[in-house]
Each structure stands twice: as structure tokens, then as C-alpha cells.
Specification:
Helix content is 0%, strand content 41%. The protein is mainly β.
Length: 113
């Protein structure tokens, strides 16, 4: 796992959770906007979950948001010393302290086969 970059207009928190269970299903990463075949990545996506249970938090942090600052990273974490476990889901969980807010995030992972 290489790192995470998060942008939000509201103050927020984030966690990287290993082996947690989400309340909605994952989908294959390749979308209409990507050309990565299913057999070339282990990445699955879930952007509809509202709860996660179980698992172990391996990294966490907070960020201060700023309205209208959509192109600035407010939380950047370099996680180079963490090796992902085999065949366990790794989830980036992001939440705000009050209400809801749009969040943009990049979760950088390097796959080696």
C-alpha cells in the first residue's frame, strides 16, 4: 500500500481497515471509464456502503476541510511500510464529523503478482 490523498469541503476522518465487512456489495473495478480487465487486477470498488463492521484499523487520521477548495489535498498519508495481507479486503473508510459532504480520494496500492 503506497498512500492516500483526500479532498473534502468539510472536516473529516479516515481509516484504513483490513478484513472489515461492508453492508453493501463490491463491484469489479473496471468501469465504463477504464480499460483494465478483471483478470489483471484484484481491486474491487464499493462507494455505496454506509457501515463497516469488524476488521482491524491499521491507519487513521483527520483532515480539515475548506469549502470551495476542490483542488487541494487536505490529508495525505504515505503508507509505504504496510504490506497488504493476502486475500483480505482492505477498505478506505471516510466520514465527516457532522452532516454529509462530497469527498474525493485516491487510495494508492501497488499490485505485485
Amino acid at each position: 500500500m503506497e498512500g492516500v490523498d483526500i479532498v473534502s469541503s468539510s472536516d473529516a476522518w479516515f481509516q484504513v481497515v483490513v478484513d472489515g465487512t461492508l453492508n453493501t456489495a463490491f463491484t469489479n473495478f473496471p468501469t465504463a471509464n477504464t480499460d483494465i480487465p478483471n483478470n489483471e487486477t484484484a481491486l474491487l470498488v464499493n462507494n455505496t456502503a454506509t457501515t463497516i463492521s469488524g476488521g482491524q484499523v491499521v491507519y487513521q487520521g483527520v483532515l480539515a476541510g475548506a469549502p470551495g477548495a476542490a483542488n487541494r489535498d487536505f490529508a495525505t498519508a504515505v503508507l509505504l511500510s504496510f504490506e497488504l495481507p493476502a486475500e483480505q479486503p482492505v477498505t478506505l473508510v471516510i466520514g465527516t464529523f457532522s452532516g454529509t459532504s462530497a469527498v474525493s480520494a485516491v487510495f494508492r496500492v501497488n499490485e505485485e503478482w
